[in-house]
Amino acid sequence: MKQMVAMPRRRLLVSAMLVALSATAAAQTAPESNQAPASSAAQATPGNASAQSSTDATNLDAVQVKGIRQSMMSSANLKRDSQGVVDGIVAEDMGKFPDTNLAESLQRITGVSIDRSNGEGSKVTVRGVGPDFNLVLLNGRQMPTATGGRAFEFSDLASEAISAVEVYKTSRASTPAGGIGATINIKTSRPLENPGFHASAGVKGVVDTSDDDLPGHYEGKTVTPEISGIFSNTWADNRFGISLSASRQDRESGSALAQVAPGNGWQTYIDTPQANGVGGPNGALAASPNVTNRPGPNDVYSMPQSLGYSVNSVHRQRTNGQLAFQFAPTDNLTATLDYTYSENKIQSARNDMSVWFNFTPDQSSWTDGSGSSPLTYHETYGCTPRVYPGGASDPGCSDLAMGASKTAVVHENKSLGFNVDWRVTDSFSLNFDYHDSSAESRPDSPYGTSNTMSTAGFFRQGAGFDMSGDFPILMLNLPPGMSEIDPSMMQATGSVFRNDYQKAKIKQGQLSGQFQFEDYSKLNFGVSSTEYKNRSAFTNVQLDTWGGNVPAGPGAYDDSLFKLAHMGDYFDGGGANSPAFSDAFFLFDFEAMRQAAANARTNAGLGVPEDYLASTDYSGAAVPGSSASRTVGDSRVQEKSHSAYLEWSNTFDLSMPLSVAVGVRYEDTKVTASALQPAPVAVNWASANEFNLVYQGNEFYTLGGDYKYWLPNLDLALDLTSDMKLRFSAGKTIGRPNWGDLNAAQTLGSPARYDGGGGGSGNPALKPLVSRNLDLSWEWYYAEGSYVSVGYFYKKIDNFIARQTQRETPISDLYTPAGGAYWNEAVAAGCAQTDRPCIRDYIFANHDGDPGVNAATGSIVGQPGDPVLAFNISKPVNNRSDKLDGWEFNIQHVFGETGFGVAANYTKVDSGLTYNNGVLGTQFALTGLSDTANFVVFYDKGPWQARAAYNWRDEFLSALGDGKGDNPLYVEAYGQLDLSFSYEINDHFSVSLEGINVTDESTRVHGRNKHQVYSLEQFGPRYMFGARYKF
Question: What is the SS3 string spanning 328-391?
């Protein structure tokens, strides 16, 4: 009987829980009540969504276990009995999964690490392979995602309805293609698998301490509720069954963030000292006497374009539900109809402050070596006092920006599935499965999915920073006569209101079967057809009035809108409490300021109220009277895949038993991509060096691609002794390109130059990543529930995707005057090819009024017969190959009947695809690659359960760009301690406490060196106290 691992967590105050953990050792006289049931039924496995395919020895039975110790013991059986390398987690009891968040449970598995968002698990990386290349299934069915990529968002799903999660680290022919790192199968309960009446209900109170550190108008409830329930029953001698589960969680949380602003990032240069002592572009290095440890000649160095701080509030309501009907008219036939629903509503709000650096320093000190950045830096600005119409005034210095945001988004997932499992004869079975599933992310507010309402006071005479510590310290200088920032000098400036819309749909049909031969070997076979549609659209309404949105300036805004606060109050410790930190800023209500800005601008006749609302018109229709820049994008990709597989398996009774499984899968995929984008219809030579594109409306552009692959696999398992096993697996897998890389959208830079322009595009003709995988593992199961394992894995990955620039003429009738008939005539008359003012003067003097020429407006428009304008297009291409290998070490030990146990694992990953921090320009490196470790100690005896779990992830490269250019981003090493404690009052009622991130760890991201901070984000511990009743 195969079982899977379960590792629970609970929480309360740290001191109380530590006492509880130590106190459990004395509670050994209570009777045990955590024995596993005597039987179980099979659940869906990847590629076979059967509810009762118990004849397949590779199926992983989702045993309904109870308690930590039994779950830990089940993990050993799962690992021992599986085909290939498989790990998993099983619910401790119906409706009781080890963690509220599935990703948090998965990180306990060897080789699995997670990305966190808003302080909880979001996406998973397996064996160094990032979230987009790990395939997630629900009951063996491929699930759509609305994340913008292929990564599954685990925070959308509550764990109460989950019976098991399986992680397939080696390939098998029956598994849908798409997972290079792993295929993760999420299983939900089925009524006929657990006959009879079962029901339970749970309630928790969530105390998120991160909410306590927010400004008063952001603080939510001290305790937010989480409720869940599950019901299952069968009738008619267990021929018919219904199961229903539902959950609802409210969570209010917050964070404090210090960051070099996204989209601005770090400006990176190569130092080229000049005679005047100023080195590099933009004067980013001060004159030599004011520079300490100046970067050397030709060293790469970076400067932050901006530095800011924000306080962020998040309110989430997550609703999940699942309904399943099963009918078995005979012992050989079972039909299942199921529906899964999840909704995750997220409302976010933010207040921030930031400064923009002009790269005119008067002092700086630097880190050592190439790839350096300032430890300290300062620049001073000129001030010209201003008086605005209406009498308001300010010093006229540079601005200290203060912004706010208020957004809402809803993520919704739906899946309707139908399955028929038919055992035709004792040796032949068939299974048919079909599902129609969707994932959608859409705006839930008139203000959009992201926005910025910016204000500023123009009283910053100087600015600098100190990045010598972990926390970046901003230092400001006010002009003479100002001792503190003044609300009477504040005014609204620019604004951005954006809506992002994502929708993905999958229709998938699978037919699978199995022959059982007389020699007990088996032949599995199957075919499937999958249609995946992905749409990504956006609208952006932007006012670039960063110098002030109305002529009246501060006079248009009442002082009462602004409330003085100090950013350091919202951070815990570190440099935030330094007296050098210039942390004073103004809080303001987003809606009040938005309305005030809209009224001021409308009353001044400069726009319409719609300029301060997000648009839901993804076609880009004009808004009468609007002065805002309005851009749209709509990208659609359709992916049709057809596949077939064969897999044969047998066990040979040699001197040592040898299990063999060999198979092959065939994948045939066609990609069609279309995108809505502005349609350039002409090139207007408007000045000596500017060739502007002239647009007329928006058009859909369609491109395509296709690929076919054979994917073989081999699994061998040799029983060296009755308790020692040696495994070898080899296989070929593919990882499909990201949706953003496949889209047909193309952006062309305007203005262009006489020799062409620049641009970027997607590439629907991309091939998938192809990985050739080898696994070797040794496992010793030396006692019940206890084992030691060592595994080595190797992946040779081809077709890595990186951007490459190519010279193209994407619009065949986009004619440029450069090199055209008028141009050549001017050159023949004596103008040099490089003397563009001469050429323009000649054309205006000799062809004014001819087609395309208007001297009055200074326009020369390309005509048919002129050259077609060429562009240097940056697009994703398949151009790299490299290896990835690593080791997995795992030990689990149960101390007999004492109730105590430990589990520890460590994963070491290595790759040649690393980033060189001392080189400027485009590089390719593997993101998400990191070593990981876990340590769990638990006690489970009688009514008591307690666990302490520590998870650690080493520093890793998270991105190859920071929004400003080719700059690496590294997430620093992070360790998190979670504690849990529960007590079973009787067979029906139990109480629990949980603590997540009890040591209050922060996340920090840096660039080319540790002082090149990109972000520092603080959350806080989260505690939950709950009760559960089992009927």
Answer: EEECCEEEEEEEEEEEEEEEEEEEEEEEECCCCEEEEEECCCCCECEEEEEEECCCCCEECCCC
What region, left, alpha or beta, does residue 488 occupy, with left being phi > 0 and alpha being psi -120 to 50 degrees? alpha
- Strand segments, DSSP code E, in 293-332 are 300-304, 306-330
Q: What is the pLDDT of residue 287?
A: 57
DSSP string of 549-591, one letter each residue: SSTTGGGGS-GGG-EEEEGGGGS-SGGGG-TT---EEEE--HH
DSSP string, 197-212: -EEEEEEEEEEEGGGG
153 φ/ψ angles, rounded to the nearest 5 degrees: -95, 100
Quote the Cα angle for 877-878-880, to 5°. Answer: 125
CB 461 within 8 A of CB 561: no
Q: Are 638 and 655 in contact (CB under 8 A)?
A: no
Would you say 49 and 510 are in contact if contact means Cβ atoms under 8 Å apart?
A: yes
Nearest to 977 by CA among 955, 1001, 954, 953: 1001
Q: Which tens digit of pLDDT belongs to each residue from 455-511?
A: 999 999 999 999 999 999 999 999 999 999 999 999 999 999 999 999 999 999 999
The residues, any chain, with a CB within 8 Å of residue 768's CB and separated by 6 or more, are 669, 707, 709, 734, 735, 736, 737, 799
Q: What b/e sequence results for 364-387 when a residue is b if at least 16 CB atoms lie within 10 Å of its CB, and e otherwise? A: bebbebbbbbbbbbbbbbebeebe
Which has the closest alpha carbon to 243: 290, 196, 276? Answer: 196
Query: For 111-140, how does the pLDDT look when each residue is reduced to its tens digit (9 = 90+)?
Result: 888 888 877 888 888 998 888 899 999 999
State both tokens at 571.
């951070």
When computed from its CA atoms, the radius of gyration of the chain, rounded to whole angstroms, is 31
Q: Which residue, chain included where needed, has tokens 């450069």?
A: 818
